[in-house]
Structure formats: C-alpha cells, structure tokens
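Homework-ish question, so no full write-ups if that breaks the rules, but can someone show me the predicted structure for this set?
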Amino acid sequence: AQSVTQLDSQVPVFEEAPVELRCNYSSSVSVYLFWYVQYPNQGLQLLLKYLSGSTLVKGINGFEAEFNKSQTSFHLRKPSVHISDTAEYFCAVKRDSSYKLIFGSGTRLLVRP
Amino acid sequence: DSGVTQTPKHLITATGQRVTLRCSPRSGDLSVYWYQQSLDQGLQFLIHYYNGEERAKGNILERFSAQQFPDLHSELNLSSLELGDSALYFCASSGGGGGTDTQYFGPGTRLTVL
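A: Not a homework solution, just the prediction itself:
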C-alpha cells in the first residue's frame, strides 16, 4: 500500500531564512506527487505538482520541489520565507491507476519575525 | 478561489442526526471527490464520482453516502452522526479523473457533532 511520510510535524523558521519541508513516499509503481498548502481556516491550495519530465518543479509563491526517485522523496523548498507563508503544508501522492490522493500528515510551517 | 464551492461552511448538529453537505465543482469538471480531515486521522479520501457514477470508495463509513447529480453537483449525506464524525469535509473536483488530473479543493464544511 502506498504511504506518504512527512517527518516534521512543525518547522519554525525566521523570516527571510530558507526552508525545506521533507516528504517521502512509498510505492512500487509510478506515482504523481503534489504539494498543497492550507492557510488557517481555509481549504487546500495547490502549490506545485510533479507528473513527469524535469525533476525540479517550480510552483506558486516562490516554492519549488525536487523529485528524487532513488530516494523516493519530494522535498519542498523556498529560499526565503515570509510571515505570510505560515500555514500547514501537505504532501500527497497519486498512482496512475488510482484517482485518489493519499496525503501525508502535514507540516506546520511557522515563520517568525 | 479554486472555483469549487461548498455549502454550508459550518454545521453544528447533535448525535444521531442526519446532515447533507453540498459541493459544486469547477465549471467543466466531471469528477468530484470527497475527503475528510480530522485531527486523529488526517486527510482521508472518502469517495469519487465521475459524471454521475461512483468510481472509487475509500474509508467511507456505511452511515455515509454520496451522489452526483446530472448538473454535476454532489452531495455527501452523513447519518446517525457520532461525536467522532466531527471534522472538516472537503470536496475537490478535476477535469476527467485521470491519473494526471489535478484536484482543486473547495473551502470545506466544518461539521461539529455535539
């Protein structure tokens, strides 16, 4: 069965510092990978996705992620965070033959001034 | 704004009651998905409909049911409610439901069972 692991439940960081949110997945077949962000009291917004092609994917708000097949990872990065990036971030995986998204447990990014 | 709408935004009810959550997908999307977000279980897939037909079921309780109507809106019915059903329920939609489709999420309905 597929699973998604987000090792860090909370990541505190100072404003303008770089950040990396980690995501590892387990699957024996090809998958599609996604990062969603959830701001307080809001729904999920797509940040970026990896379907195929270049392993470095750029998304909205200056975020990027790198797909690493050998390490089964899809870590999210941003070189300089803002206070407004404070939110919960979810990594998700979908198998080609399945329509459902399987989510990790989420990482709360807390940006401090 | 994702283009997916959900009503109501909040719902407070008592144990044993029945509620209906409504979702309107983005214009042109044929697929609707329902997810439940709770503190203990995280985000869990419940059910997927494509153009009116049920396509996949996840961890959906027998007390829960859903349908997608000819105008493509969907309803999630929750009955015999228990305290543990308190959660945020999200609807998402996508174009065709294929593997590469991106799911766009609505703002959610927060259900509180007292």
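Now go work out the reasoning yourself. Hint: The interface with chain B takes residues 32, 34, 36, 42-46, 49, 51, 90, 94-106 of chain A (CB under 8 Å).
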